[in-house]
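Appendix B, Record 12. Input sequence as logged:
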Amino acid sequence: MRRALDLAHRSNMQFVLLATDYDGTIASDGKVDDKTLAALERVRASGRELILATGRHLDDLCQVLPQLNLLDLVVVENGGLLYKPETREEKLLCPAPDRRFLLTPKGAVMVLPSGVNKATGSKPPGMN
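Logged structural output:
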């Protein structure tokens, strides 16, 4: 991931944002290393936007990535919730699951309506 970020930053590639996953992409063992954070900071400093899309819950992500303010938009819960770190605005993109599903042990099951995923969460109407 760091190599891709560095290459994109140094090249003449024309893009306005970088969207990435968390676990296994920018994070290893749940943590983002300093070199990757520095690469993300360089991309952001170049005027490009950073979007993170993850299956994690927002409260969990806040604990493992205190640098959330580096991001422009965070798509959490596999597209079920949007979060803007700058304003701390949250936008629910689908109804909450039936309460019966909430009794499953944390992290074991995630239920989303058909058609809700990281991709749909990355391009929501009305939240620029």
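The domain at 2-121 is CATH 3.40.50.1000 (Rossmann fold).
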